[in-house]
Each structure stands twice: as C-alpha cells, then as structure tokens.
Amino acid sequence: GAGVSQSPRYKVAKRGQDVALRCDPISGHVSLFWYQQALGQGPEFLTYFQNEAQLDKSGLPSDRFFAERPEGSVSTLKIQRTQQEDSAVYLCASCLLPGQSYEQYFGPGTRLTVT
Amino acid sequence: GENVEQHPSTLSVQEGDSAVIKCTYSDSASNYFPWYKQELGKRPQLIIDIRSNVGEKKDQRIAVTLNKTAKHFSLHITETQPEDSAVYFCAASRSAGGTSYGKLTFGQGTILTVHP
Prior knowledge:
The complex is a heterodimer of chains A (about 120) and B (about 120).
Chain A: E1 5-7, E2 10-13, E3 19-24, E4 31-37, E5 44-50, E6 53-56, E7 65-68, E8 75-79, E9 88-95, E10 105-106, E11 110-114
Parallel strand pairs in A: 2-11
Antiparallel strand pairs in A: 1-3, 3-8, 4-5, 4-9, 5-6, 7-8, 9-10, 9-11
Chain B: E1 4-7, E2 10-14, E3 19-25, E4 30-38, E5 45-51, E6 56-59, E7 62-67, E8 72-77, E9 86-94, E10 105-106, E11 110-115
Parallel strand pairs in B: 2-11
Antiparallel strand pairs in B: 1-3, 3-8, 4-5, 4-9, 6-7, 7-8, 9-10, 9-11
C-alpha cells in the first residue's frame, strides 16, 4: 500500500516568505509526528497529533511555526516569515495507534532552503 | 528532557567486518529504543528495536543490546556488505503517565561506509 507522502519534496523560499508543507499519512493512522532534521543531524521532534488533536507542540521552535490536521488525516506545517535557520528537511511520520508498540513510518521529507 | 548521544559520528569498515554503533541516553524513564537506517536523500527506515524488558535482540546480521543500568544501547552489524552503507540513527522514547504516544528523541547519527 501507499506509504507516507510529503509535498513539495523541495522548497526554496526567500527570507521572510511564508511556506506550507503537506503530509499525507498512511490511511487510517491515528498518530502523526513532525520532525525537523538539520543537515548532518538527527531528526528533532516538532509536534504531535492524535487524530485532529494537537497534543504536543513543545518542539516548535517559535511562534512562526504552526501545524494543523483539521480532519485527522492530512497535516500541514506552516512556517511564517521564514528565516535562514529554518533551512532543514522536515519529516512527517505516521503511526497506526498511539504508543510505543507501533512503528513510526516516515515520509521522504521536504527539504526547505531559505535564501 | 531526554538527551541521546551517539558515537562514532563516522565509521568505515571493510566488507565482511563487523560494525558497532553506541548510544547513551539520559532519561531513566525511557523504555523503547529503535534504530533507523537512512540512505542519502531517503526516508528513515526502522531496522530493529528493543524494549527495556529485554537485554538483547537479534535479526539476522543485526543485533541490539541494552544496558539499562548504564543507560546505553548498541547496534551490532555483522558480515557487513556495501549496501549497509548509510546513516544510522538511534532513538529513545518513554512512557509518561497515561500519555505514551511514542515521541522519539534521536541521536546525531553515524555515517557507516562499507568498502568492498
């Protein structure tokens, strides 16, 4: 079956522009995570959704970052007034159910470059 | 919060040799430890995981060991092959009261190169 998909795969934004990154999780997966992966680093947690509820946004680096999952499936990560330090790969992962018993399936990521 | 340290950052081996990657974690409440393989430009993929009630787990050429007392866990790859070349990440996750949803804290990654 289809895995997690993300779009766009690559995004170049001028500093100060707003961007929107989309994640299509595996159908029926309840849990959805966003991670940020800087060059040469491991992914870092940004936020977590259980269905449409955003239960943890402790990893969002500033109030310029906003995420939503209004119908409990597709999720969008929005970054306002992008800065150079926002350049990274943004990974989405979905999981069948909450908890550690279920594997997180990652999407291919969106590589954001802020110039 | 949790902090995961991973070593070495790069590892170069000859085909057929073994490779070992080590991670330490800080949160004694962490109880789930997955390992991910990420090829260049690709998504991370789970290769093996271990839970805190187990000391060792093996899957063909890959094994993971966990020492809860010392708060460290290791990935062992035997009989390495060129296709094992990738970046490997360890991660840790904890249960937190009734809200265990599996948030992962990752190490910094190890670039493994297997020379034919």
